[in-house]
Design goal:
The protein is mainly alpha-helical. Helix content is about 70%, strand content about 5%. The chain has 5 helices and 2 strands. It has a two-stranded parallel ribbon with strand order 1-2. The longest helix has about 55 residues. The radius of gyration is 26 Å and the shape is rod-shaped. The two termini are about 35 Å apart.
C-alpha cells in the first residue's frame, strides 16, 4: 500500500538525518487539480467528453421509449408489432453495448488524466520542495479513500504554492 511505502521510505531515510534537518511538508493533489488552471481545464474536458457521450445515450433512450410506445399503441397489425418488437430488442441490445463502451471510454480517459496530472503535480511539488528546502512533501490523501496524513500544522501545507508552480509549469 502507499502508506506502507511511505513509512518504509521514511524508516530508511530518517536514521541518516537528525530531527532538526529533516523537513517534511504536505500537499493535497486533488486540490491542485481543482484549483489550478490546467487542472480545471482537464476536468472540464473530461466533463465535456462525458456529456457528449451522455447526449448520445439520451437520444438512444428516447428512441427506445418511442419504439416501446409505438408497440403499445393498439394501431399496429400483428406482423408490424412483431417487427417493431424485433427492432426494439436489437436497439436495446445495441444501447446496452454503447452504454458499457462509453462507460469504459470515460473511465479510461479519467485514468489517463490521473496518471498524466500526477506526474505533472509531482514535478511542481518537487520544484516547490527544492525552493523551500523541504526533504519530502507527502500527499495528505482524501477522506473517501486513504487519509495518509492525520495531522499537520497548517503552515506545513504547501498546496497553494504547488498550485502556483503547477500553473507556471503547465500554461
Amino acid at each position: 500500500s502507499l502508506v506502507g511505502a511511505v513509512v518504509l521510505w521514511l524508516a530508511m531515510v530518517l536514521p541518516g538525518l537528525s530531527a532538526e534537518t529533516f523537513k517534511v511538508a504536505v500537499m493535497d493533489q486533488q486540490m491542485v487539480i481543482e484549483q489550478s488552471k490546467a487542472g480545471k481545464r482537464a476536468v472540464e474536458e473530461l466533463k465535456s467528453y462525458s456529456m457528449a457521450r451522455q447526449k448520445i445515450v439520451n437520444a438512444d433512450e428516447q428512441e427506445l421509449k418511442e419504439l416501446q410506445e409505438a408497440i403499445q399503441d393498439g394501431k399496429l397489425t400483428d406482423s408490424a408489432k412483431q417487427e417493431k418488437q424485433a427492432q426494439l430488442q436489437a436497439k436495446a441490445e445495441a444501447y446496452q453495448r454503447r452504454v458499457a463502451d462509453f462507460r469504459r471510454e470515460v473511465q479510461q480517459k479519467q485514468r489517463e488524466m490521473v496518471i498524466e496530472y500526477s506526474k505533472k503535480i509531482q514535478l511542481a511539488a518537487q520544484a516547490v520542495g527544492e525552493k523551500t528546502g523541504y526533504d519530502a512533501i507527502i500527499d495528505k490523501g482524501i477522506e473517501s479513500a486513504v487519509k495518509i496524513v492525520i495531522y499537520h500544522q497548517p503552515e506545513l501545507d504547501l498546496t497553494g504554492q504547488v498550485v502556483k508552480e503547477f500553473d507556471r509549469q503547465n500554461k
